[in-house]
Give the backbone structure.
Amino acid sequence: MKNLKLFLPVIVFAVLAVFMWRGLYLDSRTLPSMLIDRELPDFELRTLEPGDQLATVEDLPDEPFILNIWGSYCLPCLQENPIFMAAREQNLVPIIGVNYKDTDDAAREWLDINGNPFTLNIVDDTGRYGIDLGVYGAPETFIVDANGFIRYKHIGTIDYRAWQDEIMPVVRQLQSENQVAGS
């Protein structure tokens, strides 16, 4: 028993060291989301277009789409924008913007300067919808199927590698399933 007391701190340290070592190799962008395979939460939010227009889930595309959380204050969002602009120009997939905890004037100016890749841009100035989505901050990106179910979540900046290797394969799969279901 006395020998066990001597080795107990070493055993505890070894167990902790194994967990910490494993943590070094985990991808922080793959945090689990409780919303995967669940319906997009309902909302009734203003759009960024002038005139206090309201948008709801009913205004979202009835095909697979990307839902991107962004803000004018977000430097990584600026890095993603050319990828999203190219996707819009090539008509690859509808992209819905959620302007997160921002001001309308700053967001509109940002879009005027950098280009607007969004087919619809809703305003979440309080961050309440972001809470419903489990958002940690901008940028975050969700892929939603034609039935309004969240199928994928990407945390952080989407670069060209992530676009080609992670985002577009999911989008193409959902688009293919949607075409088969529509046949």
